[in-house]
Structures are given as structure tokens and as C-alpha cells.
Amino acid sequence: MNKPTLLILAAGMGSRYGGDKQIDGFGPNAETILEYSIYDAIRSGFGKVVFIVRQEILEESKEIFIPKFGNLIPLEFVVQTLTNRVPEAFQDPDRKKPYGTAHAMLCAKDVIKEPFAVINADDFYGEEAFQALGNFLTHDVKPDLHCMVGYAVKNVLSDYGTVSRGVCDVSPEGFLTGMIERTAISKKETGISHEADGEKLEISPDNPVSMNCWGFHHSIFEETERLWLSFLEENKENLKSEFYIPKVANAIIQEGKGKIQILEGGKIWFGVTYSQDKEHVMKELKSLHSEGKYPAKLW
């Protein structure tokens, strides 16, 4: 059986952070956050890494990462553009905003033929998450059975502003039944809430959310492409529309084309949305090295 692939979404603009956080250094030796994900993936049985990047950071990404661990695991780089997998009839020169996470995933269709995990470049997920993903993608995944590592919303917020999270509904059997992307979640003195468009929604602290830590059978690309073409047709006039992975997940569930199992493994998370988050992330990584979770130098 083929070893699973790790697909890293690293094409974000980092507008709230103020720079390219996917290639910024956070570890004791200036390691990027995604290097910890790759380290954990290698020791969890993954066999290849695919980066989705913007053209502007392609060469710098190669210069940083290939010398560090290119001899330990095969690497591929794919560029997400506003024309990649966009039929000419839907290409609009006035569009500036990237199309989102599901489009980024679809850009990797030609280089992934095996089960794969999808993660964000700027999130630290923890070794347990990759062990759970590696085991599922090696032994349990099927064309109609995928997975997601769930995290309690109380553990995945920022002290410095709102965050976007896929808020999940889960069946008693542990399968995802639906997800809504909430784009303005924050913690207040009264609890955790989502406030947008004049509406306020209270969210239970233990409610599982998606941190874009998914595991898919490669058949997901066919469903994603079908939904992608429908999305483009429906959003021809909306130049800020985004095609998210939760949209794909919801569709295959609602249409009865697959199930998504929620995996235990979301034990630890931290990430960077705002520049102020950097100090906290650096402190957490230093602590993990001191505890022996990671060697003095990753590579």
C-alpha cells in the first residue's frame, strides 16, 4: 500500500499577520511551523510532501526547504494561481483574491494519486494528530470514507482578534454531519461567540471545529472538481467568493457520497493569525524542545 502524502496549504497572503508567515521562523533555530508538521508526518509514516504556494514565494520556499529535508522525503511544489484549474470562461482579470482552500487542494490533483492529509502551513497540530491521520490513511480510508482531526474551539482561538473556524456538528457515532465556516469567532468575558453581519452566536467551548486537518481518499478530487465548476458558475459576479474545503465536506455528506470520521488526536494546537501571536508560538515551541518532544535541531 502506498504511503500517504501530506499536502500543505502554504499559499496564503498573511494579510492579518503582515507577511509570509508560512516561511517565517518560529523555532529555536528559526524553524518554520510547517517544518514541525513535516517532522511529525515523517515519523507517522507519510511518504511524500506537496506544497501549495504562491508564485511569489515559490523559489524562496524551495531554497529554504529542499536543503533541510529534501533528502528525507520526496517534495513537490505546486503554484496556486487565479487561473490554475479555472476554465477560461470564468477567468476575470479584476479578480485579486485567492479562491480558497478547496481550490488550493484541487491544484494538487495531478501530483497526488494516493490517500493524503491536508493541513495549513501556519498551524501547529501536534504529533498525535499526524499519528491519527497516518494510521487512518494507511488502514481505514476508502473512496467513501474520509477523516478530520477535531479540535475543541476553546483551544484554537487567538488573544488578539477574531479567527475563522469550521464549526462542526458530529453524530453520536463520531461522524461529521455538517459544518459551517464561522469567520469571526472570538472569546469574550461572557464566553465564546461568533459575531458577523449584526448577528451574535454563542458557541460551546468544547464544540469541535475544523483546523483544516483532513484526511482524504484521492477520489475526493473528482467530487471537488465537480463542485468547483458549480461554484464558479454560481459566483461569476462575486470577485471575493472563496471555495472552502468544508463546502466539499458538507456536499459529500449531504449527497450521501461519503462519510467523514472525526479522529481523536486534536490534543494541542497553536498558530499565527496576527503578528502578536508570534511570541506565544515561539514560547510554545521552545517549551516542546525543552521537554524532549523534538530534538535540539529538527534536521
TrEMBL record:
Residues 26-166 form the Nucleotidyl transferase domain. It holds the Pfam family NTP_transferase. Coiled coil: none annotated. Signal peptide: none annotated. This is Nucleotidyl transferase domain-containing protein. It comes from Cyclobacterium qasimii M12-11B.
